[in-house]
Each structure stands twice: as structure tokens, then as C-alpha cells.
Amino acid sequence: MSxxxxxxxxxxxxxxxxxxxxxxxxxLEIVKAQGHFIYTEKKQITDFTCGAMVVSxxxxxxxxxxxxxDHLKTGIAYxxxxxxxINRDYLSDRLVDLSNFPKGKVLYGNGGADAxxxxxxxxxxxxxxxxxxxxxxxxxxxxxxxxxxxxASLISGDARRVTKSKYYCLPWxxxxxxxxxxxxxxxxxxxxxxxxxxxVSGILVEGSSGxxxxxxxxxxxxxxxxxxxxxxxxxxxxxxxxxxxxxTGFFWAHQKQDIKPDIITCAKALTSGYTQLSGIILxxxxxxxxxxxxVMCGLTYSGHPLACTVAxxxxxxxxxxxxxxxxxxxxxxxxxxxxxxQIANKYDFVKEYRNNGFLGCLEFNLPxxxxxxxxxxxxxxxxxxxxxxxNIFTSPMLGIDESLLEESMNQIDTALSQLEN
Length: 421
Ligand code: PLP
Known about the structure:
CATH superfamily of the largest domain: Type I PLP-dependent aspartate aminotransferase-like (Major domain)
Order of helices and strands: EEEHHHEHEHHEHEHEEEHHEEHEEEH
CATH class of the largest domain: Alpha Beta
CATH topology of the largest domain: Aspartate Aminotransferase, domain 2
Mean pLDDT: 94
Strand order of the largest sheet: 4-10-9-8-7-5-6
Low-confidence stretches: none
Shape: globular
Number of helices: 12
Helix content: 25-40%
Structural class: alpha/beta
Bound molecules: pyridoxal-5'-phosphate
Radius of gyration: 22 Å
CATH architecture of the largest domain: 3-Layer(aba) Sandwich
Largest sheet: 7 strands, mixed
């Protein structure tokens, strides 16, 4: 029996690559990966952004791989979410515990965008069921909450929303000003307070800003935002898709700012990239209304049994040894800050280094063609750092040691020193 008639000689790629002009692409083919490294046939490349802040536990992790094998032995390919599986329900219990949401509930999706869109929808439903006619969800002017769904795109405040906003008009608006550091965020909070009228049902904020540029919150900023939400009966939704699972040295980044959102969304490192899965974690105030009212959203793969098994094993690893991985992030981020700032001070074309734990970026003051050159030089120096427009990210795996961290930042430094004027 022959299982495949696919040609073995792939001479052209028929894949459409997200966010890129296809004409300029010459993707490196990755053939294997191990720990902090990805490999082409000829090169070892340090994966210094966990892909896209996904593979926090590293490549080729035997514990995670074993969980996949264990799941396959059950024989279950898939069951719809009206059936229960032990791994899904165990995962939900753990996620509500970690979020300190007693009696909370978790709904699952496939990725960050659908999690955020469903979270906004559930928030709107919640307010509607409580006889509030409010339907708008606000977010920051510089933010990213996903690009694959209309809702998530329109609530994102960065350039990736522009093409879609031409065609749609929905009550999802990235109009909250990002914190103004000159006055510790006070003026922006005042502006936000004026925006939060009766028409607003919720606000969506990242636990710690990620791909829109790691814009830091002043200390106490989210707490003040939380108080505004409480005062005005607005739900606070916290997007931990990029910042969750220890990336900032806390399990959830918002815990660093000592707040309690009503809804948390997560994806990416939930499964460390071994499968797709996202979660929408609701506190009991929100979830309670769905005891007597249907949840009017969901996906074929909500709570996929394999993905939930993998996520449980990843949680074992994040929580192992009293969250020793998170201690590593807190400890090594001091070095990362130091080295990042040294690079920013050394080159005129680097505007700033901003970092929280292991979620940081160098912001460049360069035209597009030079930025492409920076990305190429990094690869030439055997390091991969995700680039989004003028930001190059530094977000290594949580268990990185000091010497690899130093070596990686040196590779970045060397690459930048090779940039021609
Ligand atoms: N939310 C945040 C904070 C993100 O950084 C991203 C992706 O980078 C998303 C949502 C969207 O996630 P996905 O690409 O899985 O839809």
C-alpha cells in the first residue's frame, strides 16, 4: 500500500507566509531542534525568542513528548467538547486555581486571537444578561491581541489592524492611550477614565505588552485601571497569550501588578508550542451567568484531548520545584536588562531597550530595508530573534543559563556592529 504520492522534490514553496510580502522571501528550512537551538542542514541557530514566544520549555523536551505518546495510547483522536476527558477537566481545575478564580471556569480555543475574541464576546454577553446595554470593548492604542479573526484584529491597536478596519466596523476599539511615562501614567489614566462611559462593557489589556513593542506599565498602573473598572462596573480582560506561563517571572504577568482580572486569556506557552491550544479563564462572577444561559461560542477543537494532555504536562514543568523556572527568569532578567541596555547605549540607531522578565525588545530607529538587513545579520551570526517592524525581540526559553544568555546577546551585538551605514 502506498500512503503518499506527494513529490519528494520540493522545488518551490506553495505556502503563504503570514505578515510578509511573499516576493522577497527566502525561508530557511529547519530540519530539527534541540533545547535552545533550531537547525538547518548546515547551521545551528539559537532560538532567542522561543519562535514567537511559544516554546518556553525548549525543543525536543522528552517529558512533553512522552505526554503525546501517552495520549496516543488511549486511542482517542478527538471527541466533541460535550464529552469530558480527564485531561481537559484537570487542566481547567489547575488553570482556575493558578488564576485564583475559585469556582471559575475555562473555555478552550485554538489560538490567541480566537481566545480574545471569545473572551470579548463572553464579556458582552455577561453584561447583556445583566441588563446592561453596553457593548463596546476598549483596548490600548499600541497593543496586539491577534490577527486571524475580525474581532481580535479590530481590538488590536497596532498597524496590523489597519487593512481590516477598512472593511469592518465593530464595537471593538483600541482607543485607550498607552501609559505616559512622563507623569507615571496619570494623564493617560485620566483620559481612559473619561472614555469608560456606560457604553463600555469591558477593557482588554495585555498582562505585559508584547509584540506591539513591550511598552511597560508604570508601577501600580494596572491596579489603578482595575479600580476604574470596579468603579464603573466594567469587566477587566487580561490577555496573557504572550506574557503568561512565567515569561515575566510571575506565573501570569498581571500578578506582578497585583490585580485580579475577571477574564484571562492564554495560548502559546500553554503547550510550549507542541500543539495548538488556547484558554479563556472566567472568574465565578462571569461564569455563573452561563449556568442558566448557553455559551454562544465555541470551536470544533475546544478542549482537544491531545492538546489538553500536553498542556497538563507543560504545567507540571512550569510548576516543578516550586516554580524554579520562574526564579531563573527573575534572576537572569537582571543580566538581560544590563546587556540589552548596553546594546541600546552603544548604537545610535537603537532607540531603547524595554524588558519585563524575559519579554523584551530593542526598538530601532532605522528604515525598513535596514531592518531587514538586521534580521539577516542576526541569522548570519546564528541567532534568531523575532522582528516586528522596528522592534527586535529578546525572549529566551525560561531555563536559559547565564553563559548562553551572554553568548546570545553578544551575537546580537556582533550582528549590529556589522550593519553598514
Ligand atoms: N495576544 C497577544 C498578546 C499576542 O501576542 C498574540 C500573538 O502574538 C495573540 C494574542 C494572537 O495569538 P494567535 O497568533 O495565536 O492568534
